[in-house]
Amino acid sequence: MKKRVSLPLLMAIILALILVGCGEASAKPPFSSVALNCSEQDVINEYGECEDIEVNDEGGNVYTYPCTYQEKDGNIYINFTSEGEIKNISWSYNPQSEEEYNALKSVLTDEYTKQYGNPSLTNEAGSAWNLNKFNVGLFAYALRGNYRVQVTFNAPGESANASEKNENTDSTASSLDTSGEPTEKEKTIYYKGDIAQGAGFTLAINSVDATPEFMNYADADSGYEYFFVSFELENTSGEPLETNSFFTIYADGEKCDNTLFSEPYDGVERLDTYADLEAGRKVKNYISATVPEKWNKIELVCDDGTTFSFTHIDLGTMSAVLGSSQDKIYHAGQAMKRNGMSIAVTAVVQTDYIPVGGSIYYEPDAGNHYIIIIFDITNTSSFSQRFNIVNAFDVYVDDYVSQFSWLSTEIAGELDLSNQDHVDIESGKSLSGYKVIKVPDGWQKIELVSRQGTYEITPDIVEIA
Fold first, then answer.
1. Regarding predicted confidence, which is higher, 457 or 380?
2. Other C-beta atoms lying within 10 Å of the C-beta of residue 44
């Protein structure tokens, strides 16, 4: 049985052998502030406390932090053994287009070929440089509009081979017995980007996401979030394939309840579990489940035991941003990342008069004022989305529950966002609009609260009209 780690071991970039402050001379990736000979405490001292520490399959901790490299806002993953020694340090980024993907892959390949010579191994998954004191791996893939570039700096003795990922097996992989519980059975574990050949079917994963909020639905319960998997499934057998109980989702070994949404995800509809997939036919669908927010590993298990394994490194553009929470405060001009949307407050105006046309106008009750908030919404996900601001935020004025007012008129060339919640915002495109909140004399604070951040508006930033 080969050893498997949660973070893919191929990916490349970096490394200069330099003196670092946490021990003797050791190789340190250019995207990292720590080197291979640093301890977990050194990592915390350099980057701060990690809000969500994962545990890899060997029992070691994996620390994840935001990291900008090559002018790309990705994440750094610092992967330890159970003995507290660094296994590898990785940087990962999801390009938003094929052009960006090809450009980044080309830059990194050229740079490290110049620095380390020709790769020791190159295949469809990437390239690897096996050096004396460390290994470097470059992993890149493009699958159905999803892109990933990842580079890894491996400690001595760790493989950088770009072919190893698809050869890994796991003796504790979840297969299903008649009770529906995981059993011990050795089998191949598949990952995002792989194509699994199952018993009478093929399965490829297109995208995975995790978020506590989705479309117009109620938020997941406190401590939980929704997990989504979109896929392409082909029935290669000669018989109809029953989809009713074909998929089961496990979070850290615990079976999770499926969540049924009627809205599309990743541009596809939810799997119809009441219809069999006929022989020779294909479907592109998604399934979803409610999982704990603090999960380390999610497994998607098919009824024949075929298993796909996911960690946070696999999450896509709609997922909650690392470190996001209701307690993270944003102010006007700052962009909140929420469910693959970049939401920015661009202007705030207080007024007692909003014209509609002719002699018609809106006027608040005596002792109150209108606060007009202008928003700019950009779809940063890889698929088309709609934005419903009423479902996105809970409104509070001086800690009292409030709400947006729907005026349904044009203000300074902007439309009420509630009149635009049916508009499909294509990937990379933007939409602007306003919402109005009624406030009393002497108000001190407006809060727009979501599970992934809170906008705070105070009188000192408000323009009086």
1. 457
2. 12
